[in-house]
TrEMBL record:
Alphabetized UniProt keyword annotations: ATP-binding, Glycolysis, Kinase, Magnesium, Metal-binding, Nucleotide-binding, Pyruvate, Transferase
Pfam families reported for this sequence: PK (PF00224), PK_C (PF02887)
The protein, known as: Pyruvate kinase
Family matches, as InterPro entries: Pyr_Knase, Pyrv/PenolPyrv_kinase-like_dom, Pyrv_kinase-like_dom_sf, Pyrv_Knase-like_insert_dom_sf, Pyrv_Knase_brl, Pyrv_Knase_C, Pyrv_Knase_C_sf, Pyrv_Knase_insert_dom_sf
Top-level lineage group: Eukaryota
Source species: Olea europaea subsp. europaea
Transmembrane segments: none
Main EC class the enzyme belongs to: transferase
Catalysed reaction equations from the record: pyruvate + ATP = phosphoenolpyruvate + ADP + H(+)
Pathway in which this enzyme or protein is active: Carbohydrate degradation; glycolysis; pyruvate from D-glyceraldehyde 3-phosphate: step 5/5
Gene3D superfamilies found in the cross-reference section: Phosphoenolpyruvate-binding domains (3.20.20.60), PK beta-barrel domain-like (2.40.33.10), Pyruvate kinase, C-terminal domain (3.40.1380.20)
Length: 508
C-alpha cells in the first residue's frame, strides 16, 4: 500500500462520447489503477459536459467501492487564443504573426485572436510569449515561442521563433514574467463555483494563477457563503514568478500548493526549476500542507512508456517530499491513461521504499522546535512510538481530519489509517452528519488512508463505542493486507479533553 496519490484530469476525457457502461468502466479502470482525486478543468467544456463526466465517476466509485475526491480547477486570468474553426494552424520560424483582441477574426497563420484586450499595454518589444495546446508539452512542434516585435494600437506583432503546428479549438498563451491585470477569480469562476461546485459539494478548488495571499482570502470568503463549500479546501496553483515572489504568504493562507511546472518552466530559466521545486516542497512539508507536482510524464500522452528522465523526475518528486502527482494531458487526451496512472504509481512506490523517513522525522521535529503545540506534540509522539515499536500501522481517530494530517506531516514509515468520526450538526431545520468531506480530503495527503466511521458512532460517543470503531478499523487494515497477526498498532485518539497515544499488540 504505497502512499503517493495521483490526481488526474477528468477520469477519461472520452467519457462523454462513450456509452454509459463503457464510460463508467473507464473511470473504474482509473480508480483501480490508483486515481484518488479527479480534477475538473473549467478552461475546457461547459458545466453540462463536466457533469456527465462526474456522473460516470460516481458510478465507478459505487462499483469499485474506492473513494475519490473532486477538484474544481478555475480558469483564472488565463490568456487564450480562440480557434473557432478548429483547423490546424501552421506557423513558420522567422515569419510574423499578429495577436489581436478582436475575437471576431478567424485564427490563421497570420492573425491569432486572443481573449485579453490589455496585452498591448502589458508587453514591450523583445518580450517573450509562448502559445501551445495544454500549455507546453515541451514539444517544439506543438508549441510556439514568439518575440514581441512591435505594438500597434491594441495589436501585438510578433516574430515566430520556431516552426510549429497548433491543433485544437483553444491554445493557452503565456507572456513570460509579465503582470496580467485580470482578477484571479473571474466572474465565470465565481458562477461555476456557486452553481456546479455547490451542486456537487466539491472537495477542493485549484485556484489557478494564484499571485498573492489576498487571492486565497477572496476565494475563502466566497466559499464561506456557500453552505457546504465552507469546508472545501483551497489549493493555490503557483504558475508564475509573481506567485513565487509571494509564496510564503500564499502558503500561510492556502490548504495546499500545486506547483504548475508547465507555466513555471516558462517563467523561470530551466536551470532554476529544480531549485524552486525543492524549496517549495520543503516549505509545504514543514507547514504540514500537501504539495502537488504537475507535468511529470508528458511523453506518455503519445507513448506507452515514460522516458528515463521522466521516471527519474517522478521518483525525485517523491524523495523531495511531494504528496501527490497531478497528471494532465496524459489522462485528458492521452492514448494510454490507465498505463500512465499505473506506471507513475509504481515509480512512486519504489521511491517510497528508499526515502529516508527517519531523517525526515528528525528534521521536522527540529524545524517545529519547542515548546510544541499540544497537537504537534501528540502527533510527533505517535509517530516516534510507531517507529520505536516497529508498528505496522498508525490508527488515528479524528473528526476534522487535522490530527491525522499532523501525524502524516511527520512522514511515518507505516500507513496512517485516518478514521473520520462523523459529527452531528443542525441548522435548526434538519440534522446532518459531517465527515465525508474530511475523509475525501485525506486522499491528497501522502501516507493517509481515510475510513469513514458509521454515523451511529458520533464524535462525542463513549469509550465503548470507540472500541467498536477500532475493531472496524483493524478489520479494514487486515482486509487490505497492512495488518497481520501479532503486529503492533499505534492508536491516537481523544478521550474526553485528553489526547491519548497507545500501543496495541494483536494476538491473532
Amino acid at each position: 500500500m504505497h502512499s503517493n496519490h495521483l490526481l488526474l484530469e477528468e477520469p477519461i476525457r472520452m467519457a462523454s462520447i462513450l456509452e454509459p457502461s463503457k464510460a463508467s468502466f473507464s473511470a473504474s479502470a482509473c480508480l483501480k489503477a490508483g486515481m484518488s482525486v479527479a480534477r475538473f478543468d473549467f478552461s475546457w467544456g461547459d458545466a453540462e459536459y463536466h457533469q456527465e463526466t462526474l456522473e460516470n465517476l460516481k458510478a465507478a466509485i459505487k462499483t469499485t467501492k474506492k473513494l475519490c475526491a473532486v477538484m474544481l480547477d478555475t480558469v483564472g486570468p488565463e490568456l487564450q487564443v480562440v480557434n473557432r474553426s478548429e483547423k490546424a494552424i501552421t506557423l513558420k520560424a522567422d515569419d510574423k504573426v499578429i495577436l489581436t483582441p478582436d475575437k471576431g477574426q478567424e485564427a490563421t497563420s497570420e492573425v491569432l485572436p486572443i481573449n485579453f484586450a490589455g496585452l498591448s499595454k502589458a508587453v514591450k518589444n523583445g518580450d517573450t510569449i509562448f502559445i501551445g495546446q495544454y500549455l507546453f508539452t515541451g514539444s517544439e512542434t506543438t508549441s510556439v515561442w514568439l518575440e514581441v516585435d512591435e505594438v500597434k494600437s491594441k495589436n501585438v506583432v510578433c516574430v515566430i521563433k520556431n516552426s510549429a503546428t497548433l491543433a485544437g479549438s483553444l491554445f493557452t498563451l503565456h507572456a513570460s514574467q509579465i503582470h496580467i491585470d485580470l482578477p484571479t477569480l473571474s466572474d465565470k469562476d465565481k458562477q461555476v463555483i456557486s452553481t456546479w461546485g455547490v451542486q456537487n459539494k466539491i472537495d477542493f478548488i485549484s485556484l489557478s494563477y494564484t499571485r498573492h495571499a489576498e487571492d486565497v482570502r477572496e476565494a475563502r470568503q466566497l466559499l464561506s457563503k456557500l453552505g457546504d463549500l465552507s469546508q472545501t479546501q483551497i489549493f493555490a496553483k503557483i504558475e508564475n514568478v509573481e506567485g513565487l515572489t509571494h509564496f510564503d504568504e500564499i502558503l500561510q493562507e492556502a490548504d495546499g500548493i500545486i506547483l504548475s511546472r508547465g507555466n513555471l518552466g516558462i517563467d523561470l530559466p530551466p536551470e532554476k526549476v529544480f531549485l524552486f521545486q525543492k524549496s517549495a516542497v520543503y516549505k509545504c512539508n514543514m507547514a504540514g500542507k500537501p504539495a502537488v507536482v504537475t507535468r511529470v510524464v508528458d511523453s506518455m500522452t503519445d507513448n506507452l512508456r515514460p522516458t528515463r528522465a521522466e521516471a527519474t523526475d517522478v521518483a525525485n518528486a517523491v524523495l523531495d517530499g511531494c504528496d501527490a502527482i497531478l497528471l494532465g494531458a496524459e489522462t485528458l487526451r492521452g492514448l494510454y491513461p490507465i498505463e500512465t496512472i499505473s506506471i507513475v504509481g509504481k515509480i512512486c512506490a519504489e521511491a517510497e521504499k528508499v526515502s529516508n523517513q527517519d531523517q525526515y522525522f528528525k528534521k521536522t521535529v527540529k524545524y517545529v522546535g519547542e515548546p510544541m503545540s499540544h497537537l504537534e506534540s501528540i502527533a510527533s509522539s505517535a509517530v516516534r512510538a510507531a517507529i520505536k515499536v516497529k508498528a505496522s500501522v498508525i490508527i488515528c481517530f479524528t473528526s476534522s481530519g487535522r490530527a491525522a494530517r499532523l501525524i502524516a506531516k511527520y512522514r511515518p514509515t507505516m500507513p496512517v489509517l485516518s478514521v473520520v468520526i462523523p459529527r452531528l450538526k443542525t441548522n435548526q431545520l434538519k440534522w446532518s452528519f459531517t465527515g465525508a468531506f474530511e475523509a475525501r480530503q485525506s486522499l491528497i495527503v501522502r501516507g493517509l488512508f481515510p475510513l469513514l466511521a458509521d454515523p451511529r458512532h458520533a464524535a462525542d460517543s463513549t469509550n465503548a463505542t470507540n472500541e467498536s470503531v477500532l475493531k472496524v478499523a483493524l478489520d479494514h487494515g487486515k482486509a487490505s493486507g497492512v495488518i497481520k497477526s501479532h503486529d503492533r498498532i499505534v492508536v491516537c485518539q481523544k478521550v474526553g479533553d485528553a489526547s491519548v497515544v497507545k500501543i496495541i499488540e494483536l494476538e491473532d
